[in-house]
Amino acid sequence: MELLESSPEMQIHILLARAFEKRESLFSDPDTNCFRLFNGEADGCSGLTIDIYGEFILIQYFSPHLVRKTNDILQNLNRSLNFLPVKARGILLKQRTKPPETGDVSAARKSILLQGSLPPAGYAVRQNGVAALVDLVRGQSTGIFLDMREVRTKLASYYRRSDIMLNLFCYTALFSVHAVKHGIAGAVNVDISKRVLERAKANYALNHLRIDDRDFIYGDALDWIRRFHKKRRSFSFIIFDPPTFSRSRTRTFSSLKNYKDSLSLVDRLIEKGYVFTSINSYSISADQYKSFHPSNWKLELYGNESSDFTRLEGPYLKAGLWKIKRC
Known about the structure:
alpha/beta
């Protein structure tokens, strides 16, 4: 559905206005100021997404036909923004229309400024009452997954003060920050990127949480599962939120091929408590996702991408909290 290809400019404005109206209630949430304003085909235009990050707007193109419509989109976006309670300090555009031709993803995905000013260094937003540093300019991901907002809200009631969390593939550690701010005893964060671990520490500092370098572990998450098991170290809450596909020096990980075996390893690290898992893929069904889990795990809650990520078909995000209790 490429409505911008044939529709008059007035219709662009109508599509934006309708999309913004659907999300009107999100502007009154004091705990969150970042979410999706426009979500592609489900809001009337394939390949176009618009996100708000506090006082900045990030447009993303996933379809090449939108490039020549940029002036029309910007003009009508400004018109629609006049009806929102937030004034945008800057509007940025990130091209996601083709894979990077070089190994430098950050350079290939660098946003351009369409209007206003760029976000200042150290710019932070709020989600679920947690402050999060975001980079709207460099790279493919901003540092926060907007589609996890409602899932994180549901998890809050399951945290216990005695919990020690293991956050595998932790990225910027926002699951850990959210859990520690809700009272758990602590969290161990594992990621294969030193750079994102530094961003994770920065999020801890931003939220006035104690930083212990021993809780930020650089390395392959699956290797560290085996190390923890060998050391007989266990956890009461585990986050398993891997990328759909990744490659390290020693292995290639694919959710379709490796998810089930990986959860069998995770099962060794928990005697009693919860494991949160997720898969971000249209090609893996909800039934497939559930089948990957050990038979002794009980599904406590299940969710998909947040409601601002409107859709015409089935969800891409399958996320569940699984209860583990040995006999």
